[in-house]
Fold these 3 entries.
Entry 1:
Amino acid sequence: MKKIYFKTLLIGLAAISAVSCSDQSDEITNILFNRNFSPIGLEAKVRNRTNVELSWNVADGVTQYNIEVFANDSLTFAGTPQKTFSITPDKVPFLVTDLDGETKYSFRVMALDGNEARNSKWSGAFAKTESEQIFMPVAEEDIQAKQVTLRWPAGQSADVITLTPGDIVYTITASDIAAGAATITGLQPETKYTAIMTRNGKTRGKVSFTTGVYLEPTDILVSPGDDLSQMIADAPEGYRLVIDAGEYGIKGADTDYGGSVTITKAIAIKGLRQGSYPVIKGRFKVEAPLSLDQVILDGFGTDGGQTFDFTGANTISEFSLTNSQVKNYTKGLMYINQPILVDKITIQGNIISKIECSGGDFIDSRKGGYNQLTFKNNTVYESAKERDFFRMDDASSSVTASPVIVVDHNTLYNVGSGGANYRIFYIRFAGNKITFTNNLVVGTNHKRGFTNQKSTDAEPTLDNNVYFNTENLISAGATADATIAWFDTNGTVLDPQFKDAANGDFTVGNDNVKDLKAGDPRWIK
């Protein structure tokens, strides 16, 4: 009797269990809540200064989203919304356009499915728009040594334009607004100004420009047809050669271009025009302080050496290459193979391409050294395919130096793309310190990554770098050498979506890369 009862009890429990499981399954698949869930993951991101992109997780069953926009608000949603929208789920993410600049906006989103009683509660987010930009790029013909004409769409109103440095305040007139242009005088030559246009205290436009050259008594004007090599040789100590647009050859043994000229005293070389740089075909042997600005250096037809070869035995206080273009040199950009100390090297704002580095490294110091190397706001592409990007041998027995290398906000494309046993930093000079920040690196495949040298700074500063299609920089890849010393483990992997890299246009198309502001600033638009 007990045995029969026990079996019956088991059967009953099984039946109850089966019913319970069946009911639970039905509840999960057919669950219906009293109302829709509020949108989850709502984010508001500023796009193109005065637009805001709203994104959130789209839920099943929702047929519509209502959006309300409140200006000068911090998630209080008080009063009447400035803008309202009703969109279908396929329109997410949604771009809110035509917002005011420098304004804090609150956004809220509600989910609907056609049954008003089931409308979700609101989800909120906020964002502050950036300043407007209605200034047009400043054309070269509108820039003079002591004045500038700034332009914007005719009819767009504003109150004042403030220029710094100098805190020059220009009051915009009705005729300026009608013409969309204002001419501002009393400026200093060769000075970088930032102009800010405001209306009711809010920025409507911001633009920077550099005033033109005003020839001083220590300036020598070089014009097409002049013998540049001879003029460099004849220039007095401390003078500057200001070169008009055109093509200039540094004479070789048997040609009018492609040779090298020796810098034996401190001079400066500057292109006269901001929009049309002079083209210099040749190389420089550097034995004294030298600065170059607004020039194009073309190594086509040279003897295969580096662009700049430091050949003397003196201490050189400073070398700078700024706002220029360099291309088509065989061995490298810079070579120090003598016991020379260069105190300060600045390479900034340049576009450098097709530096093959056959038989040499990109920036190559063997028997000398430097204290400070700043490599900033440059674009380098199709260069140093199978060589080191920065090389500095330990020449501390010949020169005394404390090398600090700062590499910041550069775009590097197909630099070290050949997969050879080289690295970005081959730095062996004792006591070196390295900073590598805000760079955008695409198409690099050094087998030894950043470095495989114990003497290279073991604790470099690495921050906010973006990588795409690279090997051995964030982590060891398939080609990695086992001796790699360190990786940028906090680096971000994103496709920058360059506009036309094959033709040298590295304008960034990926908004997430733009948000990080990595790479050469000229390509973030």
Note: Confidence is low (pLDDT under 50) at residues 1-31.
Entry 2:
Amino acid sequence: MAALAVVCCVACSTTKYVPDGQYLLKKVVVVADQEDFNAAELQPYVRQKPNAKWFSLFKIPLATYSLSGRDSTKWINRTLKKMGEAPVIYDSLQAALTVNDLRVAMQNRGYMASTVSHSTQVEGKKMTDIYTLHPGRPYFIGRVDYDIQDTAIQRLLAAQESSSWTLKPGNRFTVNGLDAERKRIATLLNNHGYYRFNKEFIQFTADTVKNGYNVDLTLHLLRYKESNRAPEQNHTEYRIGQVHFLSNTDEPLHLRPSVLENASELIEGDLYKAQNIQKTYNNFARLSAVRYTNIRLHERADSARIDCDVVVGTHKPHTLSFAPEGTNTAGDLGAAATLSYQNRNLFHGSELLTVQLRAAYEAITGLEGYSNENYIEYGAEAKLQFPRFMAPFLSKRFLRQNYATSELSLGYNLQNRPEFHRRLFSAAWRYRWTDTGRNVNYKLDLIDLNYIYMPWISATFKSDYLDDATTRNAILRYNYEDLFVMRIGFGWSYTKGSHAVRANIETAGNVLGAAASVFKFNKNDNGQYTLFNIAYAQYVKGDFDYTKAIVFDEHNSLVLHAGLGIAYPYGNSTMLPFEKRYFSGGANSVRGWSVRRLGPGKYKGHDGAIDFINQTGDMRIDLNMEYRTYLFWKINAAIFIDAGNIWTLRKYDDQPGGQFKIGEFYKQLAVAYGLGLRLNFDYFILRFDMGMKAINPAYDDKKEHYPIAYPKLSRDFAFHFAVGLPF
């Protein structure tokens, strides 16, 4: 912050490198003399932009450049100039070209009689550039006629629904609309066998009505000509000829023919469709065994057929990797290592087999009353992914329309600590598929089994935390009981443009609950039905997230996010399994709090040893607003405001003030603000966020309730490091 203040102080010298007789472009203004015309839409047509601003307010790059001295032999001057941005000098030629571009842009929008006036305002060595738009009245489409000289195409277009035609009497006349119609018809014909057709075969004649604001249009679709001297002829309708799958090397392709054929949308005898070429590229790109694909098209000289060579390059089938790591948990040092094996073509059908073996060791010291035992962990996980739906009764049309994967996973984890021993076994069968036409992704966890087994808990741990009447905690105790979870889940996500929506729902224990009633399962001492003497969890959980990005320019954007989650234990459960409970705070939530340090409700933790257990809930609300800006090189920044919290749906004695109440929850929303830095390396982003509490729902006095007015760094500051953006 101190460095930022210094840079701001020298902002008054930003004209230091502006030559005499020239001007620093301070600001560009585009306005219209009509209230109903959106001048901001034409801002991109301005050729000369002023120096970049951080957060659309501060010209820090220009100020940094101006800090440099004129002696280029000094490294500090070279560094400051490289980090900063040279002043943008007003250029009258660029201004004249901008006037013309703005006028053409308005005409393309249907304002055929539009004009642009240009003026400037000078303040010392700085200049403001002002463009005033005079759109006038817009023109509208009058009559639309079609001159289609190819009879086959005429019949094809006549068969299309009238709603697909975009040029209709009464619509606004725009050049962009004419070009969009050319592209639409060209795309339609390219997907109906017309391999050689392009939009240049479509032309328009426009006649304006005298003393009126209507334009009569005639669309001309010309016949095919090989060259200027060649005779005209009807456009040729092509079909797919022979399809060959070739290796990029001398070795044969180690993929089953059925896999190649299912991935290809090119079927011999079908009409040529440009969209099927792209679909084939997409399908092959999703096969784990395939490294790249190249489709070569060969037009036959003796017939209207196109032969296709699908050249496929494959990955090496086997990969082995080793990843060591060091650990430090509250001063206890340790080490861990993961050995991973992948086979990208297990059954010659691009099946992906992944096997991971993990081992960890940590030297634990300072635990009085426990056996002299260190932390040991062993884990094994295997995943087998098929590049297609492995399910009966699915039509070929559905399979071709949706790219899918099916996954079988098995896992086992062993943890031995001085306090307890824990075992976890998991198994799952999952589907993932994408409807590319609608930009929608789906996921279905058809069955997901988790078996948690605690073979041993030390007497000291049980006495201190689980059994003693003064310290025992229901949530903590539930976390150290044997548990069986049998769940099914469904997820849906949609992304288009600046919008992203994600929804998930899952439920557990319903099948077992029905079986328990029919087959009269045994009950334990807590009145819960058991399977193999182990209680099973029963709950329903749903999550919804929405994100919208508002882009101001290439360097600045505002991102809004809202998230809601709710889970309810019922039947065989009075509380959620710990792994399914919500928590707040951390790098992706309310960033003024560390992870698992906020909520539920107005609950305030006092026992650091078990607060991470108590600060969980059955419901979450997240509201985030983040302004993102480009700084320099690969460094971006953000300022953010976060709000949210978690709550329990039931009243638990160990979480006073944590229950959700419709008339009080809004008073318990925590608020934070902060600043973030991001290193954007394109393929991944390193994120550093610094958050401060603004409103704290868990407080003892006014200063703790409103830290925005009474900030205290040691109490209210949280630092977060993460990979990727928060939302």
Note: DSSP finds 15 helices and 27 strands in the chain.
Entry 3:
Amino acid sequence: MNHKMKYDVVVVGGGHAGCEAACAAARLGAQTLLVTMDMNKIAQMSCNPAVGGIAKGQIVREIDALGGQMGIVTDATAIQFRMLNRSKGPAMWSPRAQCDRGKFIWKWRERLDNTPGLDIWQDQVEELLVKDGEVTGVRTLWGAEVRAKSVVITAGTFLNGLMHIGRCQVRGGRIAEPAVEHLTESICRHGITTARMKTGTPVRIDKRSVHLEEMEIQEGEHDFHKFSFLDGPRPLKQLTCWICYTNPSVHDILRQGLADSPLYNGQIQSIGPRYCPSIETKLVTFPEREQHMLFLEPEGETTNEMYLNGFSSSMPMDVQIEALKKIPALRDLKAYRPGYAIEYDFFDPTLLSHSLESKKVKGLFLAGQVNGTTGYEEAAGQGLVAGVNAAIHCGGGKPFVMHRDESYIGVLIDDLVTKGVDEPYRMFTSRAEYRILLRQDDADARLTERAYALGLASTERHQWWLQKKQQVEHIIALCEKTSIKPKEVNTRLEALGTTPLHYGCKAIDLLGRPQVNLDVLQDMLPTLKEAIDNLPNRKEEIAEAAEVLMKYKGYIERERMVAEKMHRLENIKIKGHFDYQNMTQISIEARQKLQRINPDTLAQASRIPGVSPSDINAMLVLIGR
């Protein structure tokens, strides 16, 4: 007799999406089961052992502000932290941390083990159970049957996964781990369409075989920045990364091996990530380049295993090793394993609503790489939203949806369900039209109140945010009311290379100058310095938040006005109001796209590729009638 279990929510897959989904659902009171193939590889960093990066760091800050776990786990296991894009404005600043791969897994396991209402079952889901268009549970490889009101699929690269190294092919979802071979078919049985994507990972190197003294050192940063808004240090030893470069000799060997490259001999048919290409793709795409930068990054605090960022490859292993040995610092290279590519199934994300619930099967939610994305952060952000909505679905509440001016996660999900994907989707700041509003420093201001009202953010987190909000407002108010006289500051202003004052002004007005920051202003104003020095905690974080709000006030307000105009279109609900096939007032392409996507609002319709502004105007006229 099969083992039977009953839960509110079942989460299938223990990667970054699955872990956030399971925690979020349980925190909202749903009895939750996380089904994973290997409890010792929960939240495994299949590729680079790093979190964050351009736009991705903002997503992790948003996950943390919402009460998610990724930021907390990252800070606890970080071995190098850097704030990227510091040379640009604060809308572009993006945190990134190199993590200890092993400790990351066990810190996540600790978070899961201590989440009330969350159980873990080690098994492999083979079948989705559906009755009358509504999910009823799952059945596993070992015959367990789990009944549930909601199911969240976060299977990553495991669905019919096929790995490639040269002409060798091995079925698997990750190196040394089996593929899931029947779940895709079980899901597609209900009208959900699937296609294939490809991703890859680089060679892993033994640090003892590398001539590190011949490489450039890349140090981390040691200031107050981190991922979680909750207080807490980075406890692990902070380590160094190194930089080296390929050269023409490396490229010659790689070109000779292209005939055996799965990407170029027809073996791999699916599309890989445009913005994280393999080294062989770089050679073909940029034939004039004589070198490509590579980063050698530690996998952990104590291990000799190193990750060679920038050398993702599925070339034959002897070609990979021989080519790398032409780099002077790697001439005596010893590898733990070669790089490889993996093909896997994903599902058409336009068949999802903004809650990440399937339009075909009620109670079925999908998150992560199964929706056509790439990256731990994109997966985790989707997982949190899917987990929240899976829990809400059990009680019949209103879905939790974020708008494009509210979070990068909102941009990500809207892009997926509105535009679909034809290559692995990766987040960039350029994808967000409101990126001045979506900074890494203000994720708590944007999202903590919503998360607390939902029951996702703890009382401690909410109080932490309220205290910070009050202190930031106090500093801004002080700068707004404090007057500055020319004779008090002109000598300093001239030394900074900026125009002296002819008349008095408020302190906040000086911050608008590029040469003046809050540190400079504190030197000029003892009362401001005293106010910041007397803050009970997080002085630097609070000062930075206040400075950004004051210095970029005009830009922020202007972008908020643009966002509010778009909200008017968001408020015009159109789902179910139009027979698109018979709308002769709009183009044939628009009819076809609108019929397929069936957007909820006029704003979503305006973002569908192929729907023109004139089509939107025509729909506005029809709505008016």
Note: The chain has a mean pLDDT of 94.
